[in-house]
Design a protein that fits this description.
OB fold (Dihydrolipoamide Acetyltransferase, E2P), globular, mainly beta, single chain, NA-bd_OB-fold
């Protein structure tokens, strides 16, 4: 038995008291970090692979300590590749547990190897399920531009950056999303062993994504690769346009699990049509950091794009409209009248519709 409850009572009460037992192999132990929900608190996590090849996350919350005896033991199990048995864990969702002050660990004999740490081909990744961890060796074929992603974290809107990349080996190619903390870990045209990436399945499309636990180790160049022509990254577009409208951006609900916009919203709950989950409907609010621009070029092609408010204020300052830069950019019609008369060069991501830079090309007399 790899996951049990040392109690004769029902599982719900056992979980509340923290009586779960986990056995497996430690594959990751993180550093102690500041808790996002409590600036004074700290936490660390560990990933354990059980004999059913499930990857289980263990989280231990601390007060203000910078050391934890349980973490030190977990590091030893990881370094020595010993099996571990953890007692008195509290269930906190699917394959997620919280270690309490009562949690203890003991070393045990384990006779299996975590599949998630074994290197497999990209062709085999195509048959894996959503959420599985995977390790593989590949060559980085292409890396796209930064794409800002907004998350709701504890009632706060948090922006993180990701990049879409194309990776390949001799069996095929696949899209891999790289998150901001991994940007410096890989470079285009180099080869790496990627460990503990995560498989994502959305609309029957399989991709992999890095996580905070993903590692990228530089290896000798892979010469023989098989990259499909169907994998292409939309790179930045630069065009000279005039601004035609400025508008606020209303935050529309998305699935909090897979971030899909394909949802049914009844005002109280959100049902995701992609991953079939249901969540409480968050309050809609207006994004105070970005606005929407409609721009048109000389060929009358129209683009609806998103821009950081700071870029528009900087633009007004360059045009010597300091007072106007301090006004409400949407409510004050003079902002639009000034900007619409100037020829501007926009560089934007065609996928995310986010403007990365604006430059003045011509100012009328």
């Amino acid at each position: 038995m790899k996951r049990t409850y040392d109690t004769i009572e029902n599982g719900h009460n056992a979980n509340a008291r923290g009586n779960a037992v986990i056995e497996g192999v430690v594959i990751v132990v993180t550093q102690i970090s500041d808790s996002q929900g409590d600036k004074r608190g700290k936490y660390w996590t560990a990933l354990i692979c059980d004999t059913n090849q499930n990857v289980i996350r263990i989280t231990k919350y601390l007060s203000s300590k910078t050391k934890c005896s349980l973490r030190e033991k977990m590091l030893q199990y990881y370094k020595n590749k010993n099996g571990v048995k953890l007692n008195k864990l509290k269930l906190n969702g699917d394959d997620n547990y919280i270690a309490t002050y009562e949690t203890t660990s003991t070393s045990i004999l384990i006779s299996f190897t975590p599949i998630c740490m074994e290197l497999i081909s990209i062709e085999n990744i195509q048959s894996m399920s959503d959420g599985q961890y995977v390790s593989f060796t590949c060559k980085i074929i292409d890396i796209g531009p930064d794409e800002p992603i907004i998350f709701n974290n504890g009632g706060k809107r948090v922006q993180k950056l990701k990049r879409l990349s194309i990776v390949a080996d001799k069996t095929g190619s696949i899209n891999m999303n790289i998150w901001q903390n991994q940007f410096e870990s890989i470079k285009q045209n180099l080869s790496y062993t990627i460990k503990l990436a995560k498989v994502k399945v959305f609309n029957d499309e399989i991709t992999v994504t890095t996580t905070t636990n993903t590692t990228c180790e530089l290896v000798d160049d892979i010469q023989d690769i098989n990259c499909s022509d169907s994998f292409q990254i939309p790179h930045e577009i630069t065009t000279i346009c005039n601004i035609r409208s400025i508008a606020l951006i209303e935050s529309r609900p998305k699935c909090s699990k897979c971030y899909s916009s394909q949802i049914d919203n009844n005002g109280k709950t959100i049902k995701c049509l992609s991953c079939k989950s249901r969540t409480i409907c968050p309050k809609q609010n207006i994004d105070q950091t970005q606005i929407q621009l409609t721009i048109t070029n000389e060929d009358h092609h129209q683009f609806e794009l998103i821009v950081d408010i700071g870029k528009i204020r900087d633009l007004l300052l360059q045009l010597n409209y300091k007072q106007l830069a301090e006004q409400n950019l949407v409510e004050d019609e003079n902002v639009l009248l000034v900007l619409s008369s100037v020829d501007l060069s926009f560089t934007f991501n065609p996928q995310s519709k986010h403007i990365n830079s604006i430059a003045i090309t011509h100012v009328p007399n």
